[in-house]
Each structure stands twice: as C-alpha cells, then as structure tokens.
Structure to design on (436 residues):
C-alpha cells in the first residue's frame, strides 16, 4: 500500500484517492454480497425480475437527475476558485428544483400508465416497478447532495452515503427480513432498497448542512441559468446514454432471451464490475482536481494526475481478472450455486473488456471535466445504438454469451476512440502506456 501513498504528490489527492478506494471497495463488497443473497434467496427467475425492475428504476433516476451531478462536480470547483459562493448556492437551489419537477412529471406519467394499462405488464414486474417509484427522486436527490460534497472536495463524505451506506443498510435489511422468517420477493427487495435509500439521503443532508449550508446561508444566490442549461444538456444526454448503455443488454435479454438470462448476465456483470471498481473509486476522487487543474491551465499537473491514476487502476484490475479466469467457475458455484454456472464464460469475456477499460484510464472523466462532454456524449450515443442493434442477433443465437461478446467488444472500441481524441485535442495521454 506504500506505493499508493507515494504515487500522488498532493496530500489532498492522496487522501481522497486512498479513502475513496476504501469506500468503493466496501461499497462494492456489500453490493456483491447483496447480489449473492438475493440470487440465492429469490431464485433465478425472481432474481431476474428484480434485476430488470431495478435497472429500469436506476435508469429513470439518472434521467430525472438531468446530468446535474456531473454539472455540479464540474462547476463547484470552478466557483470555489473564483470564491463565488452565490453561484454555488444558486446552482444547488436550481438543481433541487429541476430534480423535484422532473420527478413529479415522471410520477404523473407513471400514474397514467398505471390507470391505462399497468396490468398489461407482467404482474410481479409491474408491482415491483410501482412500489419502487419513490426510489427515483430519492436516488436523484442523493446524487445531487453527493456531487455537491465531491465538488467541494469532501470526497469521502460524498461517497459514504451515496454508495457505501445504502449498500450496507440494504444488506442488513435483507438479512433481517430473511432471518426474521419473512418471505423475500422482488417487491419486498425493492422496498427494502428504497428504505435504505431514504436513510442514506437523510444522512447526506446532514453532511451537506454541516459542510455547505451554513456557509451559504446568508449569501445571496446567483443564477446562471442559460450557462447551466447549455452545459447540463450534454451531461443529461450523456448520463442517460451511459446508464442505457450499461442496461440496454439487460432489456434485450429480457425481450429476446429470458428472465433467467437477465439473472445470469447480471451475475457475470457484477463479477466483472469488480475489475473496474478502482476506476470508479479514483474517478470520484480526482474529478474536482482535474477540473481545478484545467481551470488553472495547469496541464502538467492534469497529466500527472491522470497517468498515476491509470496505472493504479490497472495494478488493481489485473489480479482480479486472473482470479476470475482461473477460478471463476468454482467461485460462481460456491457463492451463487450451480444454477449460475453458465455465467462463467460471459464473466471471463466481460473481465477482458473491463481490463482494457482499466488500461485506458479515466479518459471519459477527463473529457467531461475539460469541456468536451459533447464529444463524449456523441461517442457514447453511437456505441449505445450499436450495442442495441448488434446485440439482438447475438442474444437470439448465443444468449448470454452473445450479450457479453458485444458488450466487451464495443467497450474496447469506445475507449480506444476516446483515448485518441483526448490525445489529439489536449495532448493528454490517459493510458498506462507512455506516449504523447
């Protein structure tokens, strides 16, 4: 671990990176445990229904957040450099207004769908979605509070309630529910997750009150609505596309495959996600520092942060891939049961794609934090459309295996395209390799 401390020159970045990795690790650990518990308790079909409903609700919460978390991570460090607390206050107020408005509109639409033809949806899936509607604004507002804290460089507080605490509370809820003799179903699982989300959101409000609200209480809010709308639009599209890109194969498997295939792919995806958990953790930690370095026109510092980050990510990712390739089948049997053994080959394929993702580093984050979010959005859109179109025949003929092949192939292509664009426009190399 000593090399990790020596890898970053800045004490602030070092503390944020190490702490962020710790929180991400335990958050990923509890998310992994939750998936094991749910997969074993619910069974393949019911677990597939839960996964499908949950992915729809998560996508809805991302769309409702309107790209504002990324906007806040981008602009709060900028306003801090300019000592413009009025703009910070105005941005926070507008963000919460937009999220509540979007959530209200979505709630009305969902209610109309319920009145017109909710019964046409699979009964269990429909009820699970209905009872999970409250989760949508809760997750969106939690992401706003977490992004505000991260923008102010309270990285650990921003992650604590948004990832770790919610997964921990959900895990406790599942265990209490199960060992209390109550029957767990997709509906009760979503309700438990919603309760965990509400508690986590309230904890985040306490953090935000202590770190920000008291500072801006007497400050007059300043609004730059035209600028925020202009900058938030690509973030909104990108956030939706990013989430859709990760979930589109789940939807295609549900339509052209089976609910059981959804469950098998989710198990493989969760295993592969452990390969890149360091990428997510460090991205959260370095985002405000990349933004600050870019705003200060300190490209040397920006390159140093990105290079060191990518190499740490790869060092942590490689052993995970080796473990899954060599012992993945035995691990799946031990953790999930032999009914999930068919997830092994898709797991290996997804791990290879994630290893390339780790090797290319924080390329997407750098583009978002340096004003090239529209380019990132366009590439994401093309990849998502290709994912949706190409995965249909692959799923029809190869089922879960075909889904994993398409997902990993397009992930590799996307990262290579973005690396070349970043190097050409900013002369920044985000990979583990040395070239300029």
């Amino acid at each position: 671990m000593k090399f990790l401390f020596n890898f970053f020159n800045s004490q602030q970045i070092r503390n944020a990176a190490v702490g962020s990795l710790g929180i991400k690790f335990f958050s990923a650990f509890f998310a992994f445990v939750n998936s094991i518990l749910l997969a074993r308790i619910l069974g393949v079909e019911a677990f597939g229904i839960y996964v499908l409903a949950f992915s729809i609700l998560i996508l809805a919460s991302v769309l409702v957040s309107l790209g504002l978390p990324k906007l806040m991570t981008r602009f709060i460090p900028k306003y801090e450099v300019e000592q413009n607390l009025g703009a910070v206050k105005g941005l926070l107020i507008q963000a919460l207004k937009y999220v509540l408005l979007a959530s209200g509109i979505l709630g009305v639409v969902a209610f109309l769908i319920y009145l017109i033809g909710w019964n046409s949806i699979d009964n269990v899936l429909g009820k699970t979605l209905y009872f999970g509607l409250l989760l949508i604004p809760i997750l969106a507002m939690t992401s706003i509070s977490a992004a505000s804290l991260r923008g102010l460089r309270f990285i650990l507080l921003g992650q604590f309630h948004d990832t770790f605490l919610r997964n921990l509370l959900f895990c406790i809820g599942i265990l209490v529910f199960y060992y209390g003799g109550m029957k767990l179903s997709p509906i009760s699982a979503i309700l438990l997750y919603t309760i965990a989300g509400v508690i986590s959101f309230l904890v985040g409000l306490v953090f935000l009150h202590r770190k920000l609200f008291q500072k801006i209480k007497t400050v007059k809010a300043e609004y730059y609505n035209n600028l925020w709308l202009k900058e938030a639009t690509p973030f909104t599209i990108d956030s939706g596309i990013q989430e859709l890109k990760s979930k589109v194969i789940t939807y295609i498997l549900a339509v052209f495959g089976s609910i059981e295939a959804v469950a098998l792919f989710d198990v493989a995806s969760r295993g592969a996600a452990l390969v890149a958990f360091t990428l997510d953790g460090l991205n959260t930690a370095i985002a405000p520092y990349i933004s600050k370095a870019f705003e200060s026109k300190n490209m040397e510092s920006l390159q140093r942060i990105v290079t060191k980050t990518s190499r740490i990510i790869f060092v942590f990712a490689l052993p995970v891939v080796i473990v899954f390739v060599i012992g993945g089948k035995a691990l799946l049997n031990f953790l999930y049961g032999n009914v999930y053994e068919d997830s092994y080959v898709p797991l290996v394929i997804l791990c290879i794609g994630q290893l390339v993702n780790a090797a290319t580093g924080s390329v997407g984050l750098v583009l978002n934090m340096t004003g090239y979010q529209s380019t990132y959005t366009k590439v994401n859109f093309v990849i998502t459309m290709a994912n949706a179109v190409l995965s249909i025949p692959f799923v029809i003929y190869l089922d879960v295996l075909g889904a994993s092949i398409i997902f990993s192939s397009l992930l590799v292509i996307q990262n290579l395209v973005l690396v070349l664009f970043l190097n050409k426009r900013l002369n920044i190399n985000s990979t583990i390799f040395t070239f300029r």
Q: What stands out?
A: The chain has one domain: 2-426. The radius of gyration is 21 Å. DSSP finds 16 helices and no strands in the chain. Confidence is low (pLDDT under 50) at residues 1-7.
